[in-house]
Amino acid sequence: MYNYLGGSPYSSSGFQSPLTKENQLKMLEGQIEALRSMGNSSQLSLLEEINAYSSNLTEDEKKLIEKSPEYLSAKEAYESGFMGFLSSRFSSEYISTPQGRAAGEQLLSVIKDVKSKVKQELAAQNKKLQKVAELLDKHPELLDKIK
Questions:
Q1: What does residue 140 show for φ and ψ, rounded to 5 degrees?
Q2: Fewest CB within 10 A of the end CB: N or C in the chain?
Q3: Those residues with Cβ within 8 angstroms of residue 28's Cβ, 6 or more apart along the chain or in another chain
Q4: Rounded to whole angstroms, what are the CA distances from 26 to 7, 16, 47, 120?
Q5: Which of 31, 62, 26, 65 is nearest to 48 (CA)?
Q6: pTM above 0.70?
Q7: What does the H/E/C string look like for the chain?
Q8: Is there a contact between 54 and 2 (Cβ–Cβ < 8 Å)?
Q9: Which of 6, 59, 51 is closest to 25 using CA atoms?
């Protein structure tokens, strides 16, 4: 949930033993410090900073943060923006694949079906509202009972 990078620097194929959280944190802090010391041309990216800060949270802190409305709002904004970015960049490539084509056709079919159902529901609601309006025109004293 907190790891926004595509992979972990600790998951190389030659490293088989599990790292403790403390060792992972020390390694990450060392890498961050090394990146910072390289100067302006290789500054720590915002994404790496988010991951570094997030990985330093305790489980209790994570649970409380995840319940925070500010966090939920910021996370939702980030994720929806990210998905929008991906969509704008790769939707034409995705729709040209067999899986994308099938998913796109299914989405279009659902949209058409739902639109038809929504039109029917709206027409039924409008018919009911029209009947209520006619009833109130004939019996305006009903308004007094509603208030």
A1: -65, -20
A2: C
A3: 9, 52, 55
A4: 18, 18, 18, 62
A5: 31
A6: no
A7: CCCCCCCCCCCCCCCCCCCCHHHHHHHHHHHHHHHHHCCHHHCCCHHHHHHHHHHCCCHHHHHHHHHCHHHHHHHHHHHHHHHHHHHHHHHHHHHCCHHHHHHHHHHHHHHHHHHHHHHHHHHHHHHHHHHHHHHHHHCCHHHHHHC
A8: yes
A9: 51
Residue that the structure tokens 């279009």 belong to:
108
Residue entry with tokens 């910072």: 36
Please give the backbone phi and psi of residue 74, each rounded to the nearest 5 degrees, phi first. Answer: -65, -40
Give pLDDT, residue 147: 63
For 57-110, what is each residue's pLDDT tens digit? Answer: 999 999 999 999 999 999 999 999 999 999 888 999 999 999 999 999 999 999
As given in the structure block, the two tokens for residue 17 are: 């033993």
How far apart are alpha carbons 142 and 147 in whole angstroms?
9
Evaluate whether 10 touches 24 at the Cβ level (below 8 Å). Answer: yes
Q: Which residue has the tokens 């926004």?
A: 4
